[in-house]
TrEMBL record:
Residues 72-309 form the Amine oxidase domain. This is FAD dependent oxidoreductase. GO terms for molecular function: oxidoreductase activity. Pfam families: Amino_oxidase, NAD_binding_8.
Amino acid sequence: MTSSIVIGAGMAGLACARHLADSGENVIVLDKARGLGGRLATRRTEYGPFDHGAQYVTARDAGFAAWLDQAAATGLAAPWEQLGMEQTWWVGAPGMSKLVAPLAEGLEIRNPCRVETVGQDGEGWLVACENGEMFQADRLAVAIPAPQAKTLLSGVTPLADRLDAVRYAPCWTLMLSLAEPLEQAPRVYRASDGPCAWIACDSTKPGRSGEGENWVIQAGPGWSDTHLEEDPETVHGLLCSAFESWAGALPEIRSSQVHRWRHARVLKALEAPCLWDGEAGIGLAGDWCLGPRVEAAYLSGRALAGRMLKTQSR
Ligand SMILES: Cc1cc2nc3c(=O)[nH]c(=O)nc-3n(C[C@H](O)[C@H](O)[C@H](O)COP(=O)(O)OP(=O)(O)OC[C@H]3O[C@@H](n4cnc5c(N)ncnc54)[C@H](O)[C@@H]3O)c2cc1C
């Protein structure tokens, strides 16, 4: 049986690993974070969850749509109803990170396990983690954001040169829990940029319950870039006052925190489903291959697994 290591337990890495495992491969997944899902992220607090990364998922591809339907049948995905919406907005229940749970089920996953170096010996690929653990396999799939993949793989594979073409936008996110509902404010608001490019009442998503309301405010790409290196306290103040200007006087704030995403959404993608070197047995996948969406990450991960399986069966 061929063995594979997948680095990254976001949507791309788990879609890849699931496809390999379902095809009978021996696969292990490594991720540096405590939770699974990567930017499909949910912060749990005493006042309930906040989706501080991806907000919702849409499907254009029939295969991804069918996969979402299956996830919905298990209760881990549900539609987030909005007035006048043209396509279904899917969310994880009770948090966005739950969307990857059906992919992860039954897989061998080690986390937190930050990969520090990768290399080859006569037996295949060797992966060394920060905690001292070492892993070996015939093949390696790297499913992490392009700038991090570039750092890990420079000098290891010529595929790393292809990553220079990819660009990401950053995103500052504010998570605010209010003791009382904001009766008059729209539940969702979107603008092209500025401190409040996305505002959503997270508590209106299915599977979230509790008193009060949790709000997520995401700054746009230009604003986030301008304020990228500012300290979190300053950004927190700026985002809170921008939100208050939008919403009007706020009720009691129970908790608030900010999160800085350095590589949030893909601005310039590779425009290839994945990268694969069949001779060396190494490949890469991620949203950065196809575009700034969870669906792109899923399709890229599946595409890489497909290339790996084809090479094996030659
Ligand atoms: C603020 C924000 C809002 C967004 N909104 C939406 C939206 O509404 N709809 C939508 O479709 N998309 C949205 N996106 C984009 C979407 O979240 C991503 O496209 C998708 O989740 C990317 O999946 P991925 O698997 O390619 O990468 P990631 O989710 O980044 O997964 C990579 C994984 O690799 C791990 N990793 C990295 N380096 C190492 C290492 N050295 N060793 C081990 N593990 C490592 C990370 O911990 C992570 O779990 C948003 C993203 C952000 C940040």
